[in-house]
Amino acid sequence: MSEYKQIGLRRITTIVEETLIEGGRKLDTPTRRAASVAVIENPFADRYVEDLLPLMDVGRVLGRLLPERAIAALGIAGHEVESFGKAALVGEDGELEHAAALLHPELGAPFRDVLGGGAALIPSSKKRGAPGAPFDVPLGHKDAARVRSHFDGMEVRVPDAPRANEIAVAIVVTDSGRPHPRVGGLTKDKVQGKDGVV
To answer: How far apart, in whole angstroms, are the C-alpha atoms of residue 58 and residue 141?
Structure first.
């Protein structure tokens, strides 16, 4: 827990969505997705700093903590995750580059480690917003970016975050693609999963 204090962690929120009916039609198997959102202090709020390494280090910690929480909420093993994504919402005194420092250099490797793999690039987004602002976490198949049934997203929000000097960082994992996918393209049973594309 001391590690969490060191990264300025104020709150973790985990959300599970389960879709049973889509388009008026019942699903044979519900689709489920889970988001875990960490609200952290932004050590560089309201000042320009060239070296963002401390935020990259925080990204490494969140890259393990958040997917572990989300996978536990879904009640599945890491290798059973089908799609993933990440996003950050920066409070008004922060920069979009602060979100980039959290999401890109270090978060991906531990995220994939928790999943036991994940050859595809992890879809991501970043924006600035006030407390309670919604933000979208884009999703894609974890091993093959061309699986159209898994092009998706999940909206998340934390009612009191991010404050001006905070950042909300979210990851999402799913146990399936969209409900009733029918737009063609590569299907998950044909995934090779070697290059992250097919």
So the answer is: 25
Provide the CA 40 distance to its chain's centre, in angstroms.
Answer: 15
Q: How far is 81 from 115, CA to CA, in rounded Å?
A: 7
Residue 117, H or E segment: none
For residues 41, 43, 44 and 49, what is the CA-based torsion angle, rounded to 10 degrees? -150
Enumerate the H helices of the chain as residue ranges: 2-6, 53-74, 96-103, 108-115
Long-range contacts of 43-49 (CB under 8 A, 24+ apart): 43/8, 44/94, 44/95, 44/98, 45/91, 45/93, 45/94, 45/164, 45/165, 45/166, 46/93, 46/164, 46/165, 48/95
pTM: 0.95
Q: Tell me 185's DSSP state.
A: S
- Tokens 């388009």 locate to 23
How far CA 24 is from CA of 20, 33, 76, in Å, comes to 10, 20, 27
User: What per-residue confidence (pLDDT) applies to 5?
Assistant: 75
